[in-house]
Amino acid sequence: MKNTYIGSRPGLLAKKLVSLLLQGMVLAAVLGVAYILFATTQENLEIRGIESGFAFLWREAGLPIGDSLIEYDPSRSYGYAFLVGVLNTLLVSALAIVFATILGVMVGVARVSNNWLLAKCAAIYVETLRNLPLLLTLFFVYSVVLASLPHPREAIVLAEGYFLSKRGVYLPRPVAEEGFGIFVAAVCIALLLAVIFWRWAGAYKRRTGTSVPGFWGGLAIFGTLATLAYLASNSPIGSELPVYKGFNFKGGLALKPEFAALLIGLILYTAAFIGENVRSGIQSVQAGQIEAANALGVSRGVVTRLVLLPQALRVTIPATTNDYASLVKNSSLAVAIGYPDMVSIGGTIIGQNGQAIEIIAMWMAVYLTINLIISLVMNVLNARVQVVER
Amino acid sequence: MQSRTVTFHASPPRPAPVNQTNAIGWMRRNLFGGWKDTAITLVLLAILLSFVPDLIQWLFLNATYQGDDDVCRQNGGACWPFIIEKFQVLMIGVYPQDLSWRPAVSALALMGLAALTYSGRIRGVTLIAAWAILPIFALIMIGGAFGMQKVDQSVWGGLMLSIMLALVGVIVSIPLGVLLALGRHYGSPTVKVLCVTFIELLRGVPLITILFMASVMMPLFLPPELVINNLLRIQIGMILFSSAYMAEVVRGGLQAIPKGQTEASLSLGVTPARTIAFVVVPQALRHVLPPLIGRCIALFKDTSLVIIVGLLDFLGMVKGAALDTDWLGFQAEAYVFAAFVYWLICYSLSLYGRRLEQRGPSAHT
User: Which residue of A has its CA nearest to B310?
Assistant: First the structure.
């Protein structure tokens, strides 16, 4: 019987050659198709009189933007306008990630609660939000909930300087006054001292076995020093209150309804997913572990901190990384309700000069960068909680 | 020494104390277990009481079921005649009215097949074939062929369009996803790099940018003679996007197949291609059916994004209806109805997924 596999080097070599040849053909085919597409695109762009390249970024944009973190007016360049969009995307994503995590953890813990009512409420929340398109939630928040708020004239006053109205949420804007620099420096020093104390407490405990409340002690040190510094530098943080003037509020910190709707929608939607991650994390810890710790007389806080959390996080963190990434991508739905994020501004630019390829490449570059950063940070976090296996 | 055998009889278990089994006992355990529990329960009850009665009143008790917008405004509750009047537009968009039986037949076929699938009457190859044929049947019915009057795709809309986009998207993107996953898992280095690049690029960007690309850029890529209409371009964009996610799900299944399976098959003389097609892939798919269904739900939810590139799907029609000047001020009803429909479809799909998960990977298909 002929055997081409065992002990025949020439046969192996031939196989390798065939495989290399095949790979080369695949690559050639892909490159060929790519070249044809590229050539047709060039031709089409020429026919339509659309230029290519990134020179347009330095040209005057002339497009108005409603919400900007940095100084902006329409005489600025396209590149600058796009940057405004990138910053808006980053702002809304960062805020949404923080609040969605807080709400999500609360929902996840509530879902496994012994309290029947609490668990049921959390379950209804999760099952509702997860099974609705985010866009619908956004539309609902934007054109039903926020639109039903009163006119600025009759704005709901939550507290002195906090207004809720159809035109958005208005808050007092913190203003740095004289001595702010010194105060910031003092706070940094206080933080440093607190961290040093915390680490010393840990080292002391390891050396002597006597436990010192490092975390709470550090917090106390930080709180006391920061308060002292604030008083000593003569209260350097003032606030500018929004005032109703003309037909709207002037001054203060304004959250436009588009921003508020996008933020609320993203938080509510993502929190439902994070809540599920937290729940499955908690349920993945065997009941016996908790029971054993309880039987040994370990206090509840310590059981949570040292038995439950480290094991639950192993399941929760990887899934949550994905949810953070989708949150950032979902922030692009801003375009549907008119918040000027990167996609919305980029879309306007495409409408003006037709340079879709460049803009889409820039979108991809920014999103891939953000997602890469998220997964890097989360991987570091994940590496710290995973079991080191042999 | 004599050994005596003693037989022990366990005394029958005593019934649980009455205060543990009745309603009060249940409430004590589940609602008022301690002062913390009691506080949570009371606060939650207060919150629920503050809006649930109002909500029920608005939804049902004060609602108008018949009449026009004036009657609705007088009653103050929800205005259901608005939804009833807009029902056809929400379901099939501006599809010609006299032909509306055609989408209806397709919808019945879909529901019938869904019921058959859920009950487990049809399985295996028949099931897959039926689901592959269904969209073709629906396309023929809705678009018109074989002597039926042709209906242009520009008038397709409403829930019909959403479901079509999702159905075709799922059915085409699963095989594509399997191919991509196989390429990533078993492919030669070149193929692997190509697959990984494709998957990660598409997963790295939001669907909207893909839809923009399909709607705005695809005509630029293609020679001028080749014109693809907007709907098909967007459908292609959705399929490519979805296939990247499907590929990742399927890859999870491929990794779960023990190596012994392929080794056993190869040692029996089965060719590698047949081993992958008949040994590995079926098992892998069975493993990942629940997450695949999760992706189907996600894709159905994602179809709502097509309104941003100018298609009027269900949500687009809802938004249009909400802005109708004849029925001004009934936006909430429109969105509540939309939420109900989306929720019903997605939740029943997720229930089905959960059922498959409970049955385990070996029992189904």
Answer: A336
